[in-house]
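Team,

Forwarding the record for the chain on the shared tracking sheet. I've put the sequence and predicted structure together so nobody has to dig through attachments.
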Amino acid sequence: MSRPYALVAYSILAAPDLFLTYMNADTVRLTTNKAGARHLNSVHGVYLNDEHRDLARELLPLASLNSVTLLSAELCGRSYGGGILKMEPKEADRWWMPSPDLLRKHRTALVEIRPRVQALLQAKNLLKAVSLIDELLLSDIESLTEIRSDRQDWAQRRTARGKSGGKRSEER
């Protein structure tokens, strides 16, 4: 007797601490998994070390919206059709993130500006949201203007290539 269905078994992973949206038009993003949801393959799960789990779950999705982290996403990720930025797990291992020490140092201020950043993101004003985070976390970096410019150049290059129908970029 033939089988009418192909049965495929999936192993169910533990609910991750964060989700990494790995294909975005503007930049890849982290979001806290408050619901304890599980995932398959439309997002990547991020599992944090016990030592930094609470701090990172609370603040890393917000703090990662800074110019250094966004530039790093452009450099580590891949460009796909339509100018989409894609981040795979091996690439995410090289993605620069704010340190736990920096998160601890600015915890109170990050919590205070979260509603403003959320409102800007809902209004689709990523760059203004990034500017608020930069003012808080990166104000002492002398080359911040150049970092912002480099990130913008890489993003424009990716989106221009996407508009021209350019093929997927090779892994950088």
